[in-house]
């Protein structure tokens, strides 16, 4: 890979050029209570001292039982199964090209384990188009092996997307040392690769899905190439036994040298065969991709196990690419797509224009295209957005199902329409399963604007806002689903009209559209209105089988603003049992580490509130884990101790009774 692409990997390279220290942890500062996403070197560490906020660790001696931050970093949401509905447009295909996304969500060091107090975050939500997410990063001065933090894994798994950690052996130009490569592929007395076993143990303990192996340190020889091949084979074998996977990056060749091929050929074929798939470097050509796909098939593998690299770090949707070489419109796709650094949709925004609203507008443009409607692609758009070529997927297959359209970040926190925290926040683990086709709005008249809005919400930090001056009914597609219908099945909509008069109907389809891009065969059921937030319950009277699609039809004239705060489908209302054993495990002033025992039965997440002396409750945070870090609490209203309440929240957003703990000042 061309080193100029490595803007995320430049930190502290000089320290990595010095002789090694023994393989023990080193840190620049005393251990703090704030947990962070974890990163390691394979074995030996740089010499000298790490920079501020950086901890040097060796993976070789790691054991789950000794990992003090594991409770904060281990994902809890299992990988959901997906299905592919009838595509949203005629050019989107199922069973052909897939999308891998390589994303740097934060720095290698100092990336908080469980979100933070800012809404300025890459709160990705177009999971329906992605087949594999790589937690990208690493640098020679911080660490080379990165485990993804739990909120990202939980959000991805909820949408059926596996997440890979990264093994990055950097180019010499960026401080890479060949001894780190040799550390990674070292053998024990039995000829096994101990770090392969350790990597699989990390992924198992942390709850993610495997590893992206990127060996770019030059200077190797055939012996090192053979050791790397043996390591990848063992890593893949051990990974598959635990339901994990391995992606190889087109960098090191079988003779141990680093030479990016931009193709599958005899110089990297053995690594492709040893792994589950391969990221093809950006220097590919149309001919190279065509021959690579053919070779993959000759090897008994799918051509779509090759991710053709598309570098969008600098240009986003302005990137010029030969799309017909990967996903031609008029014949089968050639390979899959590997998107490098699509968080450009956040990073390119000026610092004073990074509101959640600004970010989602840019992210919709990137993933959906210039039309901002995946059912109507803009054929004149030079950027071939993923929605144009790749069919979306869904995981909504069981009752109960509910969404409050929480995108995983917000300007404040809402509960039943009331603000319970004025603090901005991000935590992807709290993200809902979001509408995948953003935004299909079907009308014969003027099309309104449909977007996530952060100025008000029913729960969480966001709602769906439909705004405009419609002169004909508008149907907004919300979810493609496979939900069974019984005599007790109901749909709840929590909604509010902010401006004008709007008639609302629930749109329910019990079959697929007649063709890709066609309107689902909706039945329209009336929804009661009223002032303020209102929860309307609609029985699916006369319908049977299974729900295939859900939407809303709005009828209004003149300027209107209508807000959707929640949607739920269920046949019985369930309330979770409370957790137990809430306790403070460590404290430093107003910084607390909390832990608890899980609630029995199904739980979506947990919420933590502070109960103030005047009886008000303030939201402190939410998590899918069974541990939480609270920062900066101070005495308020003359209290002698802080009183904290923890609740389990179910899939229908019903909450358990609280359990409490106090912290004396």
TrEMBL record:
Gene3D superfamilies: Galactose-binding domain-like, Glycosidases, Immunoglobulins. Keywords: Signal. Residues 1-25 form the signal peptide. PROSITE patterns: TAT. Residues 113-413 form the Cytosolic endo-beta-N-acetylglucosaminidase TIM barrel domain. One of its GO terms (biological process) is carbohydrate metabolic process. InterPro entries: EndoD-like_D2, ENGase, FN3_sf, Ig-like_fold, TAT_signal, TIM_ENGase. GO terms for molecular function: mannosyl-glycoprotein endo-beta-N-acetylglucosaminidase activity. GO terms for cellular component: cytosol. Residues 585-665 form the Endo-beta-N-acetylglucosaminidase D-like D2 domain. This is Endo-beta-N-acetylglucosaminidase.
């Amino acid at each position: 890979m061309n080193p100029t692409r490595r803007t995320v990997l430049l930190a502290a390279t000089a320290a990595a050029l010095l002789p090694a220290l023994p393989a023990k942890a080193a840190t620049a500062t005393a251990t703090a209570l704030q947990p962070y996403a974890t990163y390691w070197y394979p074995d030996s560490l740089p010499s000298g001292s790490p920079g501020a906020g950086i901890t040097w660790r060796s993976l070789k001696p790691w054991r789950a039982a000794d990992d003090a931050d594991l409770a904060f970093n281990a994902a809890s949401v299992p990988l959901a199964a997906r299905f592919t509905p009838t595509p949203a447009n005629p050019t989107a295909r199922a069973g052909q090209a897939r999308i891998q996304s390589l994303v740097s969500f934060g720095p290698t060091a100092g990336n908080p384990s469980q979100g933070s107090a800012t809404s300025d975050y890459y709160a990705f939500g177009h999971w329906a188009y992605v087949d594999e997410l790589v937690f990208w990063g690493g640098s020679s001065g911080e660490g080379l092996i990165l485990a993804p933090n739990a909120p990202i894994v939980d959000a991805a798994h909820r949408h059926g997307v596996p997440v890979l950690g990264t093994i990055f052996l950097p180019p010499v130009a960026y401080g890479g040392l060949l001894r780190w490569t040799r550390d990674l592929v070292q053998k024990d007395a039995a000829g096994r690769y101990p770090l392969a076993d350790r990597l699989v143990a990390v992924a198992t303990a942390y709850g993610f899905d495997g590893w992206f192996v990127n060996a770019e340190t030059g200077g190797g020889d055939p012996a090192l190439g053979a050791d790397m091949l043996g390591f990848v084979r063992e890593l893949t074998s051990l990974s598959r036994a635990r339901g994990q996977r391995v992606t190889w990056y087109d960098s090191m060749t079988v003779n141990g040298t680093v030479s990016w091929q931009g193709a599958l050929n005899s110089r990297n074929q053995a690594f492709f065969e040893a792994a589950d798939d391969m990221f093809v470097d950006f220097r590919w050509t149309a001919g190279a991709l065509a021959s690579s796909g053919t070779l993959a098939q000759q090897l008994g593998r799918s051509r779509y196990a090759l991710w053709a690299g598309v570098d969008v770090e600098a240009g986003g949707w302005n990137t010029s690419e030969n799309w017909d070489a990967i996903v031609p419109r008029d014949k089968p796709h050639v390979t899959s797509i590997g998107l490098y650094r699509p968080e450009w949709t956040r990073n390119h925004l000026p610092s004073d224009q990074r509101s959640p609203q600004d970010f989602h507008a840019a992210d919709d443009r990137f993933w959906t295209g210039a039309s901002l409607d995946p059912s109507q692609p803009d054929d004149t758009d030079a950027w071939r957005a993923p929605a144009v070529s790749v069919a979306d997927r869904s995981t909504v297959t069981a009752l109960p199902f509910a969404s409050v359209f929480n995108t995983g970040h917000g300007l404040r926190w809402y509960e039943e329409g009331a603000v319970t925290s004025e603090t901005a926040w991000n935590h992807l683990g709290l993200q809902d399963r979001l509408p995948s086709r953003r935004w299909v709005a079907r009308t014969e008249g003027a099309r309104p604007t449909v977007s996530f809005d952060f100025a008000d919400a029913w729960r969480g930090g966001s709602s769906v806002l439909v705004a405009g001056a419609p002169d004909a009914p508008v149907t907004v597609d919300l979810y493609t689903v496979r939900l069974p219908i019984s005599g007790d099945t109901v749909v709840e909509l929590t909604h509010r009209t902010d401006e004008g008069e709007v008639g609302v109907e629930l749109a329910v389809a019990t079959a697929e559209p007649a063709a890709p891009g066609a309107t689902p065969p909706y039945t329209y059921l009336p929804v009661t209105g009223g002032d303020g937030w209102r929860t309307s319950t609609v029985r699916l009277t006369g319908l049977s089988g299974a729900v295939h699609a859900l939407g809303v039809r709005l009828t209004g004239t003149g300027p209107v603003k209508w807000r959707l705060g929640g949607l739920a489908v269920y046949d019985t209302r369930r309330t979770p049992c409370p957790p137990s054993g809430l306790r403070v495990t460590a404290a430093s002033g107003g910084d607390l580490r909390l832990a608890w025992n899980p609630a029995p039965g199904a739980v979506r997440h947990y919420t933590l509130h502070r109960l103030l002396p005047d009886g008000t409750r303030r939201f402190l945070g939410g998590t899918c884990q069974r541990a939480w870090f609270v920062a900066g609490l101070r005495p308020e209203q003359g209290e002698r101790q802080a009183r904290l309440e923890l609740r389990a929240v179910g899939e229908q957003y019903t909450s358990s009774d609280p359990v409490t703990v106090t912290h004396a000042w």
